[in-house]
């Protein structure tokens, strides 16, 4: 079952439940109010008929006497409004839902507008109740008839019965209308839900088509079309495109990585193989050739060892979020340490440090990794400063970040190469870089480490004027003394 159909069914069922509950409440409220009106009507009719019959001068109601009172109408012109109402009710009983029955003191029926049975139930006060008759209900009102003109105050009983025919007709029509409206609401809500899901979930179909294309060919450039709306699915489409772009970059980088590693390893392996073959053929008998071949082979072996180590460092740099997420380091302390070490290692260089930190500043980073990042940046600065041997380090902080700057005044990097210097095995000048050592993995390792700790690195450079690397890390708002606890 597709998501559109599920959405339509869910909308229809939800509308059914909500509307059914609302209809039930309204139906019960309306029928209850209608039933109360019927009870009020029975009560008013009962009182009016009782008043009309109370005009009797007899000690007990008889059939002939009641019939004369019921048929009497000329003397009602000067009666009260209630008596006129009584006349109207009695005259209209034959065409209404109400029926009247009059009983004497013994419970014998003396008058009825309908076929009413005799009753032994005698009441001393007015009583209105609902009586079930078959599958329907009737409202029955009973009260004694008293006479102010007789020595006996109680002269009989009167019963008014409402068959609720009009009530059941109204409720039946109301029920049919409610069912019809409920069916229409369910159908309309289902169709509306399906139409809405078709338009609102269309990006999911586009994402599905894109996924299918990428599954068949991971290098396919198909992307989710841009959606001109701002909602969760639009954001999902953009994030999905970004993920595909990143995945494709990883595929390209992986392919380039394999090519670069094979190329980097091919040369030292070929050199070592050449020297070994030469020694195997004739060079082992010549001490000078033997010594040169061994020295060259050891250098190439050391170079391969460094390459393998840098590749391991790069692999570890991609997992710092998992293995070192709880580490904390005083940034200023590590920068001063690296600064002093490089001053000692390179006495021919002029190192300067501008420290604007007024207090210990803690960042969420493993100490050895921060030191490794600074060593990579300072090594590059020394390596490419051939004429003006001057390195400038800086430390500063804003509200929630600490910034480390490493600046050299050497060869610099052109604008075309600035975006590529952080790629694996990339060298600005491959020939000169190979002579200076390194495999082109240092900056890539540094960037991976920095991004793993939620930091950032930026480069400002110009060919012939040197380069400035700026590294920023989020600051932890806590006292440095907590590191010693």
From TrEMBL:
Protein keywords: Kinase, Membrane, Phosphoprotein, Transferase, Transmembrane, Transmembrane helix, Two-component regulatory system
Catalytic activity: ATP + protein L-histidine = ADP + protein N-phospho-L-histidine
Protein name: Signal transduction histidine-protein kinase ArlS
Domain of life: Bacteria
EC number in record: 2.7.13.3
Keyword Nucleotidyltransferase: no
Localization per Swiss-Prot or TrEMBL: Membrane
Pfam name, any one: HAMP
Stretches assigned to the HAMP domain: 198-252
GO molecular function, one term: phosphorelay sensor kinase activity
GO cellular component: membrane
Main location: membrane
SUPFAM superfamilies: ATPase domain of HSP90 chaperone/DNA topoisomerase II/histidine kinase (SSF55874), HAMP domain-like (SSF158472), Homodimeric domain of signal transducing histidine kinase (SSF47384)
Histidine kinase domain segment(s): 260-477
InterPro entries listed in its UniProt record: ArlS_N, HAMP_dom, HATPase_C_sf, HATPase_dom, His_kinase_dom, HisK_dim/P_dom, HisK_dim/P_sf, HssS/ArlS-like
Transmembrane segments: 6-27, 174-201
Membrane topology summary: Multi-pass membrane protein
């Amino acid at each position: 079952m597709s998501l559109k159909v599920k959405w339509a069914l869910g909308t229809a069922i939800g509308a059914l439940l909500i509307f059914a509950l609302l209809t039930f409440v309204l139906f019960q409220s309306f029928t209850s109010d209608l039933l109360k009106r019927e009870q009020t009507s029975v009560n008013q009719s009962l009182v009016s008929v009782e008043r009309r019959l109370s005009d009797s001068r007899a000690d007990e109601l008889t059939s002939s006497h009641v019939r004369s009172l019921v048929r009497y109408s000329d003397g009602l012109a000067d009666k009260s409004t209630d008596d006129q109402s009584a006349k109207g009710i009695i005259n209209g009983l034959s065409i209404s839902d109400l029926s009247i029955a009059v009983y004497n003191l013994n419970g014998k029926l003396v008058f009825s507008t309908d076929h009413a049975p005799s009753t032994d139930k005698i009441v001393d006060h007015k009583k209105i109740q609902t009586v079930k008759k078959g599958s329907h209900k009737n409202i029955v009102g009973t009260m004694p008839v008293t006479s102010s003109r007789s020595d006996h105050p109680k002269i009989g009983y009167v019963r008014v019965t409402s068959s609720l025919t009009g009530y059941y007709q109204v409720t039946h029509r109301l029920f049919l209308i409610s069912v019809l409206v409920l069916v229409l609401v369910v159908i309309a809500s289902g169709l509306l839900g399906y139409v809405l899901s078709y338009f609102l979930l269309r990006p999911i179909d586009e994402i599905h088509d894109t996924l299918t294309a990428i599954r068949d060919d991971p290098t396919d450039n198909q992307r989710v079309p841009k959606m001109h709306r701002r909602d969760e699915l639009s954001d999902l489409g953009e994030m999905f495109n970004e993920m595909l772009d990143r995945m494709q970059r990883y595929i390209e980088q992986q392919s380039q990585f394999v090519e670069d590693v094979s190329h980097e390893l091919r040369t030292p392996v070929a050199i070592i193989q050449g020297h070994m073959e030469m020694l195997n053929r004739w060079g082992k008998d010549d001490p000078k050739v033997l010594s040169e071949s061994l020295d060259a082979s050891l250098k190439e072996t050391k170079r391969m060892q460094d390459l393998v180590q840098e590749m391991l460092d790069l692999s570890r740099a991609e997992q710092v979020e998992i293995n070192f997420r709880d580490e904390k380091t005083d940034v200023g302390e590590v920068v001063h340490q690296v600064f002093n070490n490089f001053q000692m290692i390179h006495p021919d260089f002029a190192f300067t440090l501008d420290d604007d930190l007024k207090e210990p500043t803690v960042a969420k980073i493993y100490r050895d990794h921060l030191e490794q990042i600074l060593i990579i940046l300072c090594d590059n600065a020394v390596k490419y400063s051939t004429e003006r041997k001057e390195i400038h380090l800086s430390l500063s902080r804003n509200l929630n970040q600490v910034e480390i700057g490493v600046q050299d005044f050497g060869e610099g990097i052109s604008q075309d190469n600035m975006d590529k210097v952080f790629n694996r095995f990339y060298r600005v000048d491959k020939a000169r870089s190979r002579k200076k050592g390194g495999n082109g993995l240092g900056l890539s390792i540094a960037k991976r480490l920095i991004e793993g700790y939620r930091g950032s690195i930026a480069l400002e450079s110009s060919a012939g004027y040197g380069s400035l690397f700026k590294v920023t890390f989020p600051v932890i708002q806590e006292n440095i003394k907590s590191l010693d606890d």
